[in-house]
Design a protein that fits this description.
Blueprint (H helix, E strand, L loop, with lengths): L1 H5 L7 H27 L10 H9 L1 H20 L1 H18 L6 H29 L5 H32 L4 H13 L1
Helix pairs in contact: 2-5, 2-6, 2-7, 2-8, 3-6, 4-5, 4-6, 5-6, 5-8, 6-7, 7-8
């Protein structure tokens, strides 16, 4: 009985491998941004110079926007096609990452982060639907596990990658703020 639980049930379709990689990169950017915010945010008197509050204000719009719009993007992918919506969402998210270095204003960063979350939402429901489309009925759970793995690996490695890039740029003589700004570009690309 145990042997039947661990035997490989199916081969991962090439489209799903690309999907997991793109999801990993998308979530890497999220983990990256969350780690850099405490270094990037400047104390703001509008928030009584409480940078932790500012980081929270910036962080919340991403998952909130993703939660509110994922279902809609799933419906759109049913009409327009999964790949088209996933690619559009990924490009949108990349463009949002490129905007972070242009401001340190808490409200503007919160807006950018929310827009970034909309890009992520455009990938979530269509990705899950794509797994259902391409994975066999006896292999969907395992493929969903791979998708989840790519999500959490992206969060974790994104945070580590951010710290390493900041340290690297500081080693080249950049101040912390400049180092954080410079690190957004390789993550977006």
């Amino acid at each position: 009985m145990f042997r039947s639980l661990v035997t490989r049930r199916g081969k991962t379709h090439a489209y799903l491998r690309v999907l997991y990689l793109s999801n990993f990169i998308l979530r890497l950017a999220f983990g990256f941004v969350l780690l850099t915010l405490p270094f990037y945010v400047i104390p703001d008197p509008r928030f009584k110079d409480n940078t932790l509050l500012q980081v929270a204000i910036i962080a919340v719009p991403y998952p909130f926007a993703e939660m509110l719009t994922a279902n809609w993007f799933g419906s759109i992918s049913d009409k327009l096609g999964r790949k088209r919506v996933i690619v559009s969402g990924s490009v949108w998210a990349m463009l949002m990452v490129l905007l972070y270095p242009f401001t340190q204003d808490t409200i503007l960063l919160a807006v950018i982060h929310g827009l970034h979350g909309i890009g992520a939402a455009a990938t979530v429901a269509p990705s899950i639907a794509m797994i259902a489309d391409y994975a066999g009925a006896d292999d969907r759970g395992r493929q969903m596990g791979f998708y989840d793995y790519s999500t959490f690996a992206g969060y974790i490695i994104g945070a580590v990658f951010a710290g390493a890039l900041i340290a690297l740029f500081e080693g080249f003589g950049y101040g912390q703020l400049q180092a954080v700004r410079l690190t957004f570009y390789p993550v977006a690309l």
